[in-house]
Specification:
With 234 residues, the protein is mainly β. The chain has one domain (3-233). The chain is 11% helix and 57% strand. The protein has three helices and 13 strands; from the N terminus they run H-H-H-E-E-E-E-E-E-E-E-E-E-E-E-E. It has a twelve-stranded antiparallel barrel. A hairpin with a 2-residue loop joins strand 12 (215-224) and strand 13 (227-233). 35% of the residues are buried.
Length: 234
């Protein structure tokens, strides 16, 4: 659920670089966020993106820019936490340039959903295994100004869940359309906390959602002690 920002691991990028050297009243039209997200999980999508941010290398903040491809694979049958599930892999690959030097990178995160209802169960990366405190889905009726908490996640170092890393909280905010009939903007925010409940990272993904339930990535961002990243769909 960290969306696009969680698939760009700033720590990996740092190692690579070091080695290389509207206004107005809110319309009352409602939108189905659950349908939009469910369609994205089922069918997948590929998006060309531009990248811009900073990464800390040996204590020095370095600016970088680049481009890449973000891929949401169509969901497939899988197993999660010893139960049958569906999985979708988000991966991003591309090239970034910092201080006149270019470096390739690629990384991925896999999200897991319940079969049938597609409720969110958790996610995994090469260095983390996260489990939703309770499976959750997205609201079926939202409008400009809507917001709420979708759920909380327990973070672990791996699938044995022997070492706790902290928690995360997923929320949504719906921005009013520019005019009646236009899509609304939907921000999904993932606030990540360590075991001492200190905020260590904030991921924000922004989508447009049409009245027919088409959810399209617009941008994403991440902010942590390792650096910052802005991802923009092209």
């Amino acid at each position: 659920m960290r969306m696009t920002t969680s698939v760009v691991v700033l720590g990996t990028l740092a190692i690579c670089l070091a080695g290389c050297g509207g206004g107005g009243a809110t319309p009352s039209t409602t939108f189905d966020l659950e349908v939009g997200y469910t369609n994205l999980v089922k069918t997948g999508r590929t998006v060309n993106v531009s990248l811009l941010g900073t990464v800390t290398v040996n204590g020095v903040s370095t600016q970088f820019s680049g481009s890449g491809t973000l891929t949401f694979t169509p969901s497939v049958s899988a197993s999660f936490n010893n139960a049958t599930a569906l999985s979708q892999t988000e991966s991003i690959s591309g090239t970034v340039t910092a201080s006149g030097q270019s470096a390739p990178y690629s990384s991925s995160v896999t999200d897991y959903y319940s079969t049938g209802t597609l409720m969110f169960l958790g996610e995994s990366t090469a260095s983390e295994f996260d489990v939703a405190s309770s499976p959750f889905s997205y609201p079926t009726s939202v409008m400009g100004g809507s917001n709420g908490i979708l759920g909380t996640i327990n973070r672990y170092s791996d699938s044995t869940m022997g070492v706790a890393l902290g928690t995360a909280q997923i929320s949504y905010t719906v921005m009013p359309p520019l005019d009646p009939g236009s899509p609304v903007g939907v921000q999904l925010t993932n606030k990540i906390y360590d075991t001492q409940s200190a905020l260590v990272e904030t991921d924000v993904s922004t989508y447009s959602l049409t009245s027919s339930g088409v959810l399209t990535l617009v941008s994403a961002s991440v902010q942590s002690a390792s650096g910052t990243l802005s991802v923009s769909a092209q």
